[in-house]
Amino acid sequence: MVHKSPESNDKRWIYVPAVDLVKPISADDKNSSFVGSDFTYEDVSGRHWSEDNHTLLEESELDGKPVVMPGYALPLEYAGTKVTEFLLVPWVGACIHTPPPPANQIVHVVVDENQASESKGLFEPVSVTGTMFTKQMSKSLYLVDGSSDINIGYSIQASMVEPYTNKTKTNNNTQTKR
Question: Contact 9/26 with Cβ under 8 angstroms?
C-alpha cells in the first residue's frame, strides 16, 4: 500500500503473506528492487489516473479494431520457451495473491507461434499490437499456491509483442493507454 504525499516522502507498506506481516518500507527504498525482481517499489506503487489518457468507447467500437496496448504480461501458454498466450494486466502482481482486476481491465492475448518471444518472467512490461475483440471469457490461472478462474473482457490477436519503453511508438488514434 502507498500513501502518496506531495509535501513529503510517500509512506509505503508491503504485506508478506508467508508470515502474515505488514512491513513498512523506507521512503529511501522506493528505487530498490521489489522482492528481488527487476521492478522497483516505485514501479509497483501504482499511479494516479490522470497520468493516462482515457476515452470511453462502446464495446462495438472496439471489436475488430487495430490497437496498441501496453501492460504487464502474465504468461499462460508456451511453445518451448516462447510465450504464445498471456493475460495483459494493468499492474504488476495483478491476479496473484490479490483479487484480480475487473474483467474490463484484463485482456487475453494470443500470439502466433512464429511471432512469439522469449519470456523474461512474470509481469514483463510489454506493448501489444494487434486486433481487439470484445469477447467475455474465463481462463484458469495456475500458480504455486493454487489456481483461480479469471474473468476476461477482451482479447487481442497479436501481430507484435515488444518490450514496453516510454519510447514505444504508437499511433494516438489506435493506442489504448492504461
Answer: no
Beta carbons within 8 Å of 133's beta carbon, 6+ residues apart:
63, 64, 154, 155, 156, 157
- Say which CATH number the domain at 126 has: 2.40.50.870
75: part of which helix (H) or strand (E)? strand 65-79
Report yes or no: 110 and 157 within 8 Å, Cβ to Cβ: yes
Buried b (16+ CB within 10 A) or exposed e, 163-173: ebeeeeeeeee
* 7 beta partners: none
76 and 28 assigned to the same domain: no
SS (H, E, C) 15-70: EEHHHCEEEEECHHHHHCECCCCCCECCHHHCCCHHHCCCCCCCHHHHCCEEEEEE
For 9, the domain range is 2-46
Walking along the chain (178 residues) 10 residues at a time, the average pLDDT comes out as 65 72 70 66 62 65 88 88 89 71 88 82 87 86 70 92 70 44
